[in-house]
Design brief:
The protein is mostly helical. The protein has 17 helices and no strands.
Amino acid sequence: MNKIGYLFYLAIGCILTPISTYAQKVIFEEEESAELSLEAYSDEFQELFFEALKQKGIENYDRAINLFLEGKTLGTNNAVIDYELAKAYLASKNYVQAQEYAIAALNSKPEDYWVLQTAYTIMAKQGLMLDDIKNKIPFTNAKMQKNIVLIYYEHQNYEAAKELLLEMKSSSFTKEYSLKIDDHLRIKKEKPAELFEEVEKQVTKQSPIDNYLNTLSALLDKSDYKELQLKSMEAMENFPAQPYFYYTYGLALNMQGKHKEAVSILESGIDVIIDDNEILNKIYKELADAYTALGNSSKANLYLSKIKSGS
């Protein structure tokens, strides 16, 4: 297998292959994905696709988009191309086009959590919700609905999550999350506004996310980077919409000299951030450190400049 073919295989696999441990807890009843045969893709498509990924990686979004669009004309696996176009348009802040391709990707892969997460981010950037495109996607797909509830819950959109749960068929999942959401909504309704923030903190202290935050903080204090890597990976797989877990995972990898792995995790973390400049700058700093260690000064300086600009 030639070099570009191997890299193309890896790229396609990363996009379409679910994470096994994550699938056990978040992606419900994982679908059996069709085996991908490298021979099914023409050399021309492979070269276009990989070059597009490369251009997106160096933030040359216009060039990447043009290459992905050219790849679509070959009529090969448009679901993958649509997903990459959605992410490229999102990165270039062209949200209308990003939404168009996210919708197309969701119609092809309605049960894919990562496509849905990208769509959620695109909608949030426009001040909208996934409900606003419900007539354009397979919104009644049971697995998609479960993933939407999880995303809404993680982002504390409790009312929207509750409304969707009421529409879903009763199950252990709907009962569990209905109880969790009812607790949050009841506290918000019954407690005076000035006490709500403190009560929310008390509720959060009992949550799995907070448990992870406390554990990771303790490991950071002890500089136990090996255990920090393991716990961060576990936290990220259970709560993939929480960018802080990508940051601690990437930091742990960096501190152990695993800089290439750190870059992959940290750049994935950027994709799930909506509005959190503090975490974004922490991720940029780790990316700059990783690229410096890898001898890529141009990329290191690029991320350092993002920190200085406050982006």
